[in-house]
Write a structure and sequence with these properties.
Chain B: One of its GO terms (biological process) is transmembrane transport. The complex is a heterotrimer. Helices cover 36% and strands 21% of the residues of chain A. Chain A contains 15 helices and 16 strands. Classes of the chains: A alpha/beta, B mainly alpha, C mainly alpha. At the B-C interface, α3, α4, α7, α8 and α9 of B face α3, α4, α7, α8 and α9 of C.
């Protein structure tokens, strides 16, 4: 879909923003370009819509060299979202969103109707269309920015740190909204961020750049966390990548046991016989009621007479990841995570040690799947691995500071 | 102008050097005292406008209207009260400076970062000490930018005062017209521009001396 | 206070006397002259100042020269320039108009330039990014956003031109300044103060016109920012 063929960008002052980049981005997925300041990720993005012209190599879109397309025309067919939204302050929200349709020569009524549709799509009330950008919050402006980019329903969307200027709560909201939108629209999205968490959360594929404009690794989030290509990537991905990997293991794959799970009608004597320090008391429909400590069980009667400790939170075997399960285990008074099905009925429990076994299972599954990765990604990965050996020990671990671009 | 008359007769300038120096002094006084008076009015007025935001709009409107009144008309209105004196020239020129100085004082105060303002309050500065010792110094670059504009236009406007007999170097402009002789006019224009540009340069220097901290910031960025 | 009333009465008397309203040297003729000088020179200055300011602002080339010219221009004594032009070229309208244009160009030029330069780089980037041609970036994004400053430049130029056109009466031109200059030489204070009153009213009208323009052609979206900052 989008192909970089040994693309470089050098500036007259001698700096290299992008160094012989070869990369092929698949259609219909989110590719995240991530890396420290000055790694060339934004430059790479901006070469796709010719906001930056490469000094060497070619960028092609669906097999066509983009230099063959007039820049304004090319750009009208590619959505573009930037950090501070860059809305036109002198135009109403609706007019902002209608920008590209109007540039394409649609009539006013049709463009406005399209804009109103998009306003709704990004989750903003229609009365907001008459306002001006300055009357909106940062998060709302960013939504309008996305709507404007979608104006002419372009197949490709470029997003340059679109969510980094808003506070964490709004960012999480926008990210969730973005994932929902993408499920609906299936755009080919190139997304730049310096935030590895955001990259892992949103990306189908992630390209990690190192300072000096070199591609360090191009891979799926799972593989990036499991097998960072080198020290630089490992450092950039972070010390807790082991735990983050659990995000990609489905909770359903976690081995559970149901020994400590007992109905409230169970006699105390039988509960003792189970030999567990904690038992999980459930109701008739196996919904969890609370934890009972073996040491504090009453002399006789049933578990209904026992004083229960609050549950903490459970994890769902349907929607959650192994990471949620681990979190649930660590926060539980019994140190056991409680897995429930869609009805909220307990399936079983597992402790942190048992959960870590899930990682090993994931590794095995991945090793089997490693064969059928896309050829383009593999080639790029090999190339960057070679480049890394040349770079030797000077793999700096993403020092902050310095302006981007 | 008679044919063959050169734009400038250097001889004339040499002959009138002493007199030119006297008029230059008068011109400076007529041009710069209004800026000083304007500053004396604008700083408290600007602080007040900064504190009471609703005042700013009306004050600015009045200052802008005063500024838009042609100097000749304003001189004539004051002639009735202050006669054909220097004051008649300086009062309107003072009023003109307000349209630049008041907004620059207000903008300068607004440029003080909120954390700095709050830190000063937290450290125990009273409202007045805070303005004088913290906010005004930070506002200096923007205020001086206004003073530069005010001083340059004030110096060039003084010449019109010659129509009521108080124009500093403007004397040579009317004199040249009466004699149909361009040398004094050109000399006056050049001297006035030199005065204005020198004053401007000195103000830039003053700003550097007054705000050593902004200098280092400039080189760092 | 009595004085002020007195002055107003003088102005009233002068305006009321019918001879001011007719024939050669009457108020309508002087006003027309004044408006012609000011209007024509403002028009030409706007053509020059706007096109140059937009060009320099959009391309960013020549910014240094623009700043230098504007600084130098402010230092020129307008009165001196007009008198010099009359001394050199004789008493006719065209040279004075040229001088007025020369005085009005710098404020228009510098403010237009600053307005376009001051457009948020992210917005300009977005304008290109959504596929505007350079011309569209200028016309659809930069100019509307620079409009408050462009109007400011035009207003300053207008004020300057109206004032200088008044002074142009001294070396012998028409316009409202005529009343003041003639009144001064004849020691006719009624004429002086009446003429001054007309000039003041004209200045106020100019202010009102620009305030109205600002209200009608500047986008409300921009006014919100201006009042916020």
């Amino acid at each position: 879909m989008i192909r970089f063929d040994t693309v470089s960008k050098n500036y007259p002052n001698g700096t290299t923003a992008v160094d012989e980049l070869s990369l092929e981005l698949a259609e219909g997925g989110i590719t995240v370009l991530v890396g420290p300041s000055g790694c060339g990720k934004t430059t790479t993005l901006r070469m796709i819509n010719r906001m930056v012209e490469p000094t060497a190599g070619t960028v092609s879109l669906r097999g066509q060299d983009i230099r063959e397309i007039r820049a304004p025309e090319l750009r009208r067919g590619i959505g573009y979202v930037i950090q501070h939204a860059g809305l036109f302050p002198h135009r109403t929200i609706l007019d902002n969103i209608a920008t590209v349709p109007l540039l394409l020569g649609w009539n006013r009524r049709k463009a406005q109707a399209r804009a109103a549709e998009l306003l709704e799509l990004v989750g903003l009330p229609s009365e907001m269309g008459k306002r001006y950008p300055n009357q909106l919050s940062g998060g709302q402006q960013q939504r309008v920015g996305v709507a404007r980019a979608l104006g002419a329903d372009p197949p490709v969307l470029l997003m340059d740190e679109p969510f980094s200027a808003v506070d964490p709560i709004v960012r999480a909201e926008l990210q969730a909204e973005f994932i929902r939108l993408q499920k609906e629209l299936h755009k080919t999205i190139v997304f730049v961020t310096h935030d590895i968490d955001e990259a892992i959360k949103l990306g189908d594929n992630i390209a990690v750049f190192r300072t000096g404009g070199r591609l360090a690794q191009f891979d799926t989030p799972e593989r990036l966390l499991a097998h960072p290509a080198d020290e630089f990537v490992a450092g950039f991905v972070g010390q807790d990548r082991g735990i983050r990997r659990l995000s990609f293991v489905k909770a359903a794959e976690v081995p559970l046991r149901d020994g400590p799970v007992l109905p409230a009608t169970t006699p105390v004597a039988r509960a003792r016989a189970a030999g567990e320090p904690w038992v999980l008391v459930v109701d008739d429909e196996r919904r969890p009621l609370g934890w009972a400590a073996e040491a504090e069980l009453p002399e006789n009667g049933t578990l209904a007479d026992a004083s229960l400790t609050r549950l903490g939170h459970t994890f769902s075997l349907v929607g959650d990841s192994a990471r949620a399960a681990l979190d649930s285990a660590l926060l539980s008074p019994s140190r056991l995570a409680v897995g429930v099905d869609t009805d909220g009925a307990v399936v079983g429990v597992a402790d942190a040690y048992e959960l870590s076994a899930a990682t090993a299972a994931a590794d095995r599954a991945e090793a089997e799947a490693a064969g059928d990765k896309s050829a383009g990604a593999e080639a790029a990965w090999d190339k960057s691995a070679g480049a890394e050996e040349e770079a030797g020990g000077k793999a700096d671990t993403g020092s902050a500071g310095g302006g981007e671009g | 102008m008679s044919d063959g008359e050169p734009l400038v007769r250097w001889q004339w300038i040499g002959d009138h050097a002493g007199e030119l120096a006297d008029y230059t002094g008068i011109h400076l006084r007529l041009g710069l005292l209004p800026v000083l008076f304007g500053l004396i009015i604008s700083v408290p007025l600007g602080i007040l406008c900064h504190r009471r935001r609703w005042l700013y709009g009306p004050v600015l409107t009045v200052a802008n209207i005063l500024y838009s009144i042609p100097s000749l008309a304003l001189f004539m209105i004051f002639v009735k009260y202050t006669g054909l004196t220097e004051r008649t020239v300086m009062i309107p020129l003072t009023l003109y400076t307000l349209s630049v100085l008041v907004p620059n004082v207000v903008d300068g105060l607004a440029s003080v970062p909120e954390p700095v303002r709050q830190a000063a309050t937290a450290l125990g500065f009273g409202p007045i000490r805070r303005v004088v010792q913290v906010e005004l110094p930070i506002a200096v670059p923007i205020v001086i930018a206004g003073v530069r504009v005010a001083a340059v236009s004030s110096i060039s406007l003084v010449a019109v005062g010659q129509l009521i007999g108080q124009g500093g170097l403007g004397y040579y402009i009317t004199r040249g017209l009466q004699l149909d002789f361009p040398t004094p006019i050109v000399t006056a224009i050049v001297l006035i521009m030199l005065l204005a540009l020198t004053t401007d340069a000195l103000l830039v220097l003053a700003q550097r001396l007054l705000t050593p901290w902004s200098r280092s910031k400039v080189t760092a960025s | 206070m009595n004085d002020l009333l007195n002055q107003l009465r003088l102005v009233g008397d002068w305006l009321a006397s019918s001879k001011q309203w007719h024939g050669d040297g009457g108020i309508p003729q002087r006003l027309l002259e004044h408006l012609t000088y000011s209007g024509l020179s403002l028009l030409f200055a706007a053509l020059i100042g706007l096109s140059l300011g937009l060009l320099v602002g959009h391309t960013g080339r020549g910014a240094f020269a623009v700043a230098g010219v504007a600084n130098l221009a402010r230092a020129i004594p307008t009165f001196g320039l007009v008198v010099l032009v009359v001394t050199l070229a004789g008493l006719s309208t065209t040279p004075v108009l040229v001088a007025l244009v020369a005085l009005a160009v710098p404020p228009i030029l510098i403010n237009t330039f600053e307005g376009v330069r001051g457009v948020d780089p992210a917005t300009r980037d977005a304008a290109r990014g959504v596929g505007m041609t350079e011309w569209q970036v200028l016309v659809r994004a930069e100019v509307p956003m620079a409009l408050p400053l462009i109007l400011l430049g035009l207003r300053i130029a207008a004020i300057q031109v109206v004032a200088t056109a008044t002074v142009a009466a001294y070396p012998g031109l028409g316009g409202l300044g005529r009343f003041i200059v003639d009144g001064l030489s004849r020691n006719d204070y009624e004429l002086v103060i009446g003429g001054s009153a007309l000039v003041v009213v004209l200045a106020l009208v100019v202010q009102i016109v620009f305030a109205a323009l600002r209200r009608t052609i500047v986008s409300p979206g921009l006014r919100a920012t201006v009042s916020k900052s």
